[in-house]
Here is the input.
Amino acid sequence: MIYLIFKRICDFFAALIGLILLSPIILLTIIFLFFANKGAPFFVHPRPGKNARIFNLIKFKTMNDKKDENGDFLPFDQRVTKVGAFIRKYSLDEILQLLNVLKGDMSLVGPRPLLEQYLPLYSKDQQRRHEVKPGISGWAQVNGRNTIKWVKKFEYDVWYVDNQSFLLDLKILFLTFKKVLKKEGVNNSESLNMTTFSGGDDE
Here is the structure.
């Protein structure tokens, strides 16, 4: 309990300071995306948080909404804008989630908040990823993110739930910054779209 209170305090002040320091980058990104996306720089989407409570995740909008003749969205690589590709390459699309951290919906570290439609597909053990607040980065993210199978990703999430600590969070944050600077693993979504989870031992 003391750890969770301490973590919340650290999250709040780190998010506040981060938003202040990154405000020039945030402003410039909003301006560029405003023109690239015809007035829509933000992407807001419902995601399950702690105890599967739904909250609105906010990110920079890096893809357009183009659809095919059947009304379905075009493939990922055909919808990412040039500005969006740059933003994803340097993980700038995650910055606005500091607002979610400030509000208390998320933490700096925890399992990534996935799609609401996945909730009924999790096994009993996989559902345990919702015992903690979702994070901007997590144990699965610094151990491969989109390059690992779903079942392994969830194993990492549950392992974090059982082993979370201040030192582990610091380690994850350090590895996150290291990987972002090297542009490896943590945010390779500009070239690899995450496959859809269909339940069970889906890879």
